[in-house]
Design goal:
With about 250 residues, the protein is of the alpha+beta class. It folds into 2 domains: about 1-130, CBS-domain, CATH 3.10.580; about 135-240, Jelly Rolls, CATH 2.60.120.10. It is about 15% helix and about 35% strand. The chain has helices at about 10-20, 40-50, 75-80, 105-110; strands spanning about 5, 25-30, 35-40, 70, 90, 100-105, 135-140, 140-150, 150-160, 165-170, 175-180, 185-190, 190-195, 200-205, 210, 220-225, 235-240. The strands form 5 sheets. It has a 6-stranded antiparallel sheet, with no helix packed on it. It has a 3-stranded mixed sheet with strand order 1-2-3. A 3-stranded mixed sheet has the order 4-5-6. The longest helix has 11 residues, at about 10-20. The radius of gyration is 25 Å and the shape is elongated.
C-alpha cells in the first residue's frame, strides 16, 4: 500500500517517483495518524509545474474527495463509480483511517470475473487491465470476450459475409448461441437450421457445429460457454475453410 499513499508533507519529487512506480496516476494523501485527507494525481502535479512550483516544493493536494467507508454496500459503490470522473476511491474506516483503494477497472474486473470480495481486501493485487478484453481477429471475422470466470465465458462474435467457422466440437464445454444480427446457416450434428435474429441454439459437449454466413451482412451472435475449461485448444476441427490445424 505504500506505493499508493503519501504524506501530506512530501515533496512534489517524492510524489512523482511514487506515481511513476505505482503506474496508477494518483496517490492517497495521509496525515500523521494515517487518516485520508486528500488525493493528488499526475495531472495535479503537471498543473503545479505550470504554476511555477519546483520539484522540491511540498505537494498541494485536493482535500475534497469521494471515498468509500468499509461498511458501504454494493449499491453505494456502484453509485459513486457512476460519475465518469471518478476512476478510483479510497476506502476508510469510520475514523477516516486508510484501509485500501479500489479503481473502477478493478471493481469491474471483480464483477465480470465473479470473484468474491469485500472492502477490506487489498485491491492493488488485482490486474485492472483484465476487464479490457482484446478484440481477437480470426480469418472469418472477430470476437470479444465479455466475461471470463472459472464457471463461464461469454463472447460477442462477428462473422463476415462469405465466411464461416470451422466444423468443430468441444469436449469440455457446452455453448449457448443467441443470434443478434444477420442471416446464414448453422449446422448442428446432421441437421441444418436457418440463422435469423433472435434465434437460440444449444450446442452440448461433443456435438459438431458450424455457422456459415452466406448473406450480405455480418452475422453477430452472443455465445455463452459453460463447462470446466474454456481454452482455444478445446476445439476439435473436422473441416476448415482456412486450413487451420485440426
Amino acid at each position: 500500500m505504500t506505493d499508493i499513499t503519501i504524506s501530506r508533507t512530501a515533496s512534489i519529487m517524492e510524489a512523482l517517483i511514487k506515481i511513476d512506480k505505482n503506474n496508477k496516476g494518483f496517490l492517497i494523501v495521509l496525515n500523521e495518524e494515517q487518516k485520508v485527507i486528500g488525493v493528488i494525481t499526475d495531472g495535479d502535479i503537471r498543473r503545479l509545474f505550470i504554476q511555477g512550483f519546483v520539484a522540491s516544493d511540498s505537494i498541494i493536494f485536493k482535500s475534497s474527495l469521494k471515498y468509500l467507508k468499509d461498511t458501504d454496500n454494493f449499491h453505494e459503490i456502484c453509485d459513486l463509480f457512476k460519475n465518469e470522473k471518478t476512476s478510483f476511491l479510497p476506502i476508510c474506516d469510520y475514523k477516516m483511517k486508510f484501509i485500501s483503494v479500489i479503481t473502477k477497472k478493478q471493481f469491474h474486473s471483480l464483477l465480470l470475473h465473479d470473484k468474491d470480495w469485500n472492502l477490506s481486501d487489498d485491491f492493488t493485487k488485482i490486474n485492472e487491465n483484465e476487464v479490457d478484453f482484446e478484440i481477437y481477429n480470426k480469418p472469418w471475422g472477430f470476437y470479444k470476450s465479455t466475461m471470463l470466470s472459472k464457471d463461464v465465458q461469454s463472447k460477442v462474435i462477428t462473422v463476415f459475409p462469405g465466411e464461416e467457422l470451422s466444423l468443430q466440437e468441444h469436449k469440455l464445454r457446452e455453448e449457448h448461441w443467441i443470434i443478434i444480427k444477420g442471416k446464414g446457416i448453422i449446422i448442428l450434428g446432421s441437421s441444418k437450421f436457418d440463422v435469423l435474429p433472435g434465434k437460440y441454439f444449444f450446442i452440448p459437449k461433443g456435438l459438431k457445429h458450424q455457422i456459415i454466413n452466406n448473406g450480405v451482412e455480418n452475422i453477430i451472435f452472443a455465445e455463452v460457454q459453460l463447462g470446466d475449461y474454456f481454452g482455444e485448444d478445446d476445439i476439435i476441427r473436422y473441416s476448415d475453410k482456412y486450413n487451420r490445424n485440426k
